[in-house]
Structure formats: structure tokens, C-alpha cells
């Protein structure tokens, strides 16, 4: 598996995401935001957490207009996989590769702590390493993690089994307790919690490890 991790000014989890991919067995390329193309043979693009462009305007809005996002969109349009974590999830909504928007947390405070997530579907390359209903612990670190979609879109996400994760105890008032969503073709996942920060024992837990291992297995046969 060949993973490309995008890097924007202000990204601070790019190395964490790259290491998680590498430990799962992937070859990883770091791709700067001003690049206009992805390396040949990329299977999955990772959009890391952080504060791209200082999170000015809407979080992720400036990053979504970076040159590399044209290549990201083309990669997704031809059926490529993409994983956006935290700020990366915000970028995916701003590029319209995923529905919805990320708003300020209900308490208007930055939240950084481990949270309990419930796996809502195992029917994706990202969640195949879990069973539906599993509860896992993954850290969050965000100020704008309050996921919002209108009622029509929310019903579509439910009907199409596209809610990947829900918070067991909602920390930010996200609609329907949603912590992560899938694209229609199930090849793009955006999530606010950080699985790459819980991918080895030194992190204090390994609940995120199954995601990266499952990706390796699924992409090998995709």
C-alpha cells in the first residue's frame, strides 16, 4: 500500500499519521500543499490534523483551495481512498468530498481528551478491523468538532449506513452523536477523533491500530 500524507502550513499531526501508516506496512510519501499532483501509485491519501493555515476563516477552508486539493479530488473521483482526521475531516467537508460542516464545539472550548466511540458499521475498508457495536477509545483534540448536516442529509447517512463512528458521550454537540462519516462509495472517511494517536502501546492504547491494519488488508485486495 502506498499512502500519501498531505502537509499544509499549520499541520501538526502529519508525522503521526505517516508513522501509523508505516507501522501498518505502507510506503508513505509526504506531499506539500503547493504540489499539484500525487506520487504515482498512491492508494490512499491521508489529510492530517492540525491547524491548516492557522484555522483562519472556516477551519479547513483555505486548505481546501490549495493546489494539492485538485489532485486529491481527482484521486477520489477515480475511486481512490482518502482518510481525513480532525482538521483533515474539516478539509474534506470544505472540498465537498464529504457532506456537512464542522462548527464550534457547543461549549466554545477546545477539548483534548480520550473519548469512547461506538463502531456503527464494519462495512468499509476503514472499519473492517472492528465489529459493529464495538466500543473503542480514541483521543480528540479540537475546537471546531461539532458536526452538522441538515435533516435530509442526516437521513441519507443513516439509510446508507454511512455513519462510521458515534460518540458514546457526545463532547461537542455533533448532530446524532456523529464522530465519523463515509462517502457514498465508502472509500473516503472523515473523523474528528485521532486513531493515529492510539495506534501503538506507547500511546496508552492500541484501539486505532485496527483501522490501519484493516486498510492494509482491504487495499491489498481492492
UniProtKB/TrEMBL annotation:
Q: Which residues form the active site?
A: 86, 194, 196
Q: Which Pfam families match?
A: GATase_5
Q: Which UniProt keywords apply?
A: ATP-binding, Cytoplasm, Glutamine amidotransferase, Hydrolase, Ligase, Nucleotide-binding, Purine biosynthesis
EC code(s) of this entry: 6.3.5.3, 3.5.1.2
Task: Please indicate which superkingdom the organism of origin belongs to.
Answer: Bacteria
List the catalytic activities from the record.
Answer: N(2)-formyl-N(1)-(5-phospho-beta-D-ribosyl)glycinamide + L-glutamine + ATP + H2O = 2-formamido-N(1)-(5-O-phospho-beta-D-ribosyl)acetamidine + L-glutamate + ADP + phosphate + H(+); L-glutamine + H2O = L-glutamate + NH4(+)
Provide any one GO MF term from the record: phosphoribosylformylglycinamidine synthase activity
Q: Which InterPro entries match?
A: Class_I_gatase-like, PRibForGlyAmidine_synth_PurQ
Instruction: Give, as in the UniProt entry, the pathway in which the protein acts.
Output: Purine metabolism; IMP biosynthesis via de novo pathway; 5-amino-1-(5-phospho-D-ribosyl)imidazole from N(2)-formyl-N(1)-(5-phospho-D-ribosyl)glycinamide: step 1/2
SMART domains, alphabetized: GATase_5
Q: What does this protein do?
A: Part of the phosphoribosylformylglycinamidine synthase complex involved in the purines biosynthetic pathway. Catalyzes the ATP-dependent conversion of formylglycinamide ribonucleotide (FGAR) and glutamine to yield formylglycinamidine ribonucleotide (FGAM) and glutamate. The FGAM synthase complex is composed of three subunits. PurQ produces an ammonia molecule by converting glutamine to glutamate. PurL transfers the ammonia molecule to FGAR to form FGAM in an ATP-dependent manner.
Describe its assembly: Part of the FGAM synthase complex composed of 1 PurL, 1 PurQ and 2 PurS subunits.
- The molecule here is called Phosphoribosylformylglycinamidine synthase subunit PurQ
Organism this protein belongs to: Lacimonas salitolerans
Amino acid at each position: 500500500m502506498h499512502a500519501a500524507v498531505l502537509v499544509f502550513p499549520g499541520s501538526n499531526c502529519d508525522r503521526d499519521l505517516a508513522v501509523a501508516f508505516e507501522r501498518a506496512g505502507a510506503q508513505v510519501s509526504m506531499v506539500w500543499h503547493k504540489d499539484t499532483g500525487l506520487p504515482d501509485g498512491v492508494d490512499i491519501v491521508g489529510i492530517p490534523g492540525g491547524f491548516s493555515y492557522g484555522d483562519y476563516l472556516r477551519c479547513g477552508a483555505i486548505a481546501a483551495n490549495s493546489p494539492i486539493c485538485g489532485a486529491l479530488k481527482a484521486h477520489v473521483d477515480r475511486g481512490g481512498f482518502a482518510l481525513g482526521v480532525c482538521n483533515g475531516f474539516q478539509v474534506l467537508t470544505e472540498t465537498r468530498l464529504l457532506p456537512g460542516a464542522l462548527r464550534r464545539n457547543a461549549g466554545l472550548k477546545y477539548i483534548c481528551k480520550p473519548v469512547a466511540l461506538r463502531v456503527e458499521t464494519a462495512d468499509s475498508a476503514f472499519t473492517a478491523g472492528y465489529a459493529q457495536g464495538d466500543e473503542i477509545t480514541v483521543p480528540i483534540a479540537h475546537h471546531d468538532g461539532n458536526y452538522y448536516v441538515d435533516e435530509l442529509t442526516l437521513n441519507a447517512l443513516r439509510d446508507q449506513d454511512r455513519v462510521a463512528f458515534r460518540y458514546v458521550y457526545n463532547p461537542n454537540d455533533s448532530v446524532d452523536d456523529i464522530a465519523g462519516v463515509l462517502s457514498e462509495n465508502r472509500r473516503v472517511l472523515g473523523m474528528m477523533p485521532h486513531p493515529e494517536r492510539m495506534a501503538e502501546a506507547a500511546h496508552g492504547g492500541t484501539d486505532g491500530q485496527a483501522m490501519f491494519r484493516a486498510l492494509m488488508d482491504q487495499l491489498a485486495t481492492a
